[in-house]
Amino acid sequence: MTVRGVALAPDPASPTTMAASPSVSVIPEGSPTAMEQPVFLMTTAAQAISGFFVWTALLITCHQIYMHLRCYSCPNEQRYIVRILFIVPIYAFDSWLSLLFFTNDQYYVYFGTVRDCYEALVIYNFLSLCYEYLGGESSIMSEIRGKPIESSCMYGTCCLWGKTYSIGFLRFCKQATLQFCVVKPLMAVSTVVLQAFGKYRDGDFDVTSGYLYVTIIYNISVSLALYALFLFYFATRDLLSPYSPVLKFF
């Protein structure tokens, strides 16, 4: 730039100067290359809040387990109740560890394996507890044998119209529920193996990923188990009403 014969140095802030300089690059504020803020789950606050509730749940549940063991007057029933109660500390502590290692490469998959295996054990113990409440398979059959199955679309028994309760019905409920106790641990172990070989990525529904097939098998298994468990409760709800077994899940 020249003013009355005097040469002036170019203004560094001038747009023409910046455009001419190859070493200057402008990154917009909203550019995806800008450093992103960490999500809340990765913060210390999230870990502290979750830790407070985890340890609160641990203390309350451990106290309940202690009281059951201290007053162990009905061992045939209380052993199942104690096993069911243990799902709270296992689930809570496992989830907390997954949160603490949230930034690591899918470490939660390995933590979840222990949780999934115990979840299958809890389903088995819940069904066994219901059988124990009612005095076993023979006692249940003596109460419901020959009674017509109430057909209802709401309760999923519309396909059983005209049928009666029999030993086959009861064993179907038992076998369909217990298959989940086998499939769930197998899927958990398969997940760990696939993860080790780089063939599993959580949330990846690609046909080359093991997550898709594990999810399909798991959903079929758990749906069948819950349906069979519901059918069993639907057939014996009047007999189980004094024990309120559903509250064991809350």
Brief rundown of the structure:
The chain has 250 residues and is mostly helical. The chain is built from eight helices and two strands.
Structure overview:
The protein contains eight helices and two strands; from the N terminus they run ββαααααααα. It is an all-alpha fold. It has a two-stranded antiparallel ribbon with strand order 1-2. Helix 2 runs antiparallel to helix 3, helix 2 packs antiparallel against helix 4 and helix 4 runs antiparallel to helix 5. It is globular. The termini are far apart. The N terminus is likely disordered.
Helix-strand layout with pairing:
Elements: E1 2-3, E2 6-7, H1 15-20, H2 44-70, H3 75-85, H4 87-100, H5 108-134, H6 137-144, H7 167-196, H8 210-240
Antiparallel strand pairs: 1-2
State Rg.
Answer: 30 Å
Distance between the termini: 80 Å
Order of helices and strands: EEHHHHHHHH
Q: Which regions have little confidence, pLDDT < 50, spanning 5+ residues?
A: 2-8, 14-35
Coarse shape? globular
- Main structural class: mainly alpha
Q: What spatial order of strands do you see in the largest sheet?
A: 1-2
Taking the sheet with the most strands, its summary is: 2 strands, antiparallel
- Give the tally of β-strands: 2
Tally of alpha and pi helices:
8
Average pLDDT:
82
Strand content: under 5%
* Helical proportion, percent range: 55-70%
